[in-house]
TrEMBL record:
This is POMP protein. Keywords: Chaperone. Pfam families: UMP1 (PF05348). GO terms for biological process: proteasome assembly. The keyword Cytoplasm does not apply. It comes from Cinclus mexicanus (American dipper). Belongs to the POMP/UMP1 family. The keyword Chaperone applies. GO terms for cellular component: cytoplasm; nucleus.
Length: 140
């Protein structure tokens, strides 16, 4: 009976759920840090989501303007440059200012909040360099 076999397969647990990286894996406190209820809450103000997505919205507007003025090649070229710049990074335990991305966006001559008081999302966290590299390379 083929119907009975397929229903048994749908009810069974997949292999990924049983593996070490699946459902039964414990929370890794060393890599992910402490859990915070504040991060899981909904935004407290309607403008909070807009402020979080400000750079993404600004990029979309700039790409649309470039496409209307210069054609489709200009935003595509700029997006390729953004991807190339994002791939080049320092070691995972060193802070990167990502100056090339600021130059591409035109933010290199502007002084903003993150220049004076630092960006809160990039707080200085120093971990064990060997463990962080092994995690990035997928050895752990």
């Amino acid at each position: 009976n083929s119907r009975g076999t397929t229903s048994l397969l749908k009810d069974s647990i997949s292999f990924t759920e049983v593996s070490a990286s699946g459902l039964f894996e414990g929370y890794d406190l060393l890599r992910r840090g402490f859990t915070s209820v504040k991060n899981e809450l909904l935004p407290s103000h309607p403008l909070e989501l807009t402020e979080k997505n400000f750079q993404l919205n600004q990029d979309k507007t700039n790409f649309a303007t470039l496409r209307n003025i210069q054609g489709i090649h200009a935003p595509l070229k700029l997006q390729m440059e953004f991807r190339a710049v994002k791939q080049v990074q320092r070691l995972p335990f060193l802070h990167s200012s990502n100056m090339a991305m600021d130059i591409l966006r035109g933010n290199d001559e502007c002084i903003g909040f993150e220049d004076i008081l630092n960006d809160p999302s990039q707080s200085e966290v120093m971990g064990e360099p060997h463990m962080m590299m092994e995690h990035k390379l997928g050895l752990l």
